[in-house]
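Example 257, ligand zinc ion.
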Amino acid sequence: MRSLLFSFVWLYALPLQAQVEAPKTEFADYLVAPVHVHRLITPGELNLTTTLTDQDLGEIFLQVNRIWGHAGIHFPIATLTTEAAAHPNAYRQNYRSRNLRWMLALRPQNTRTPNHFHIYYLKRFLANGVYIGPGGMFVKDMAKLWKVENGIEKPIPRVTSHELGHALTLKHRQEATNLMASGTSGWTLNETEIDQSRAAAQKLKWIRPAKEILEQADALYLEGKRPEAREQYRLIAGIPLHCPETTRAKIRLKPRP
Ligand SMILES: [Zn+2]
């Protein structure tokens, strides 16, 4: 009880600006795009070594999903891999280059799983983040943003969400409070951007409606295929909504005693 009270006091003390407004999208409208997150930890290469922990990345994606929830698109971390960058020499040879395509060489070959977006986290490079293709987005620990009114407090969730916007075909729109503005802490999407990103998501076969994933998970669960069911429930449990569907997913995710 004491700790509960304490946490309420703590929540109350947070400045309003730190919170992205909660989305109101209904479960039935959600599309789910699994993400493979890569923590680059490269021995002897500080720039190619992220300081973010698995837990940090979990919290980052809570924010990403609050932002993208407004468009009804959910980005669960389907896989999180910690690995060394491939070809670390590429960094020394190219780090001053404005064309960031060289960064694709940093991706280890054997973890480029199909049917996911891939985001690589590292300490430092020339931009805050870059989208090169669905299989190559990069975000740096040192990202810094221009603060705008009602902007998000932390840069990394914003940069991650921005690159995912490019992955769903969005272009830059230089209005400071917009997610697709360059280098600001803005996080909003307008109706056109919501429609466009949803249309792009619907074109990709591996991005599925949350409803369809839940049906598959329930069927697997009833067949007694618990690990397979859990894999599906995990994709939808983090949708930022309190509803029977996400509650069931959360309960059935827990391993039985
Ligand atoms: Zn951009």
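Summary: Residues 162, 166, 172, 182 surround zinc ion (CB under 6 Å).
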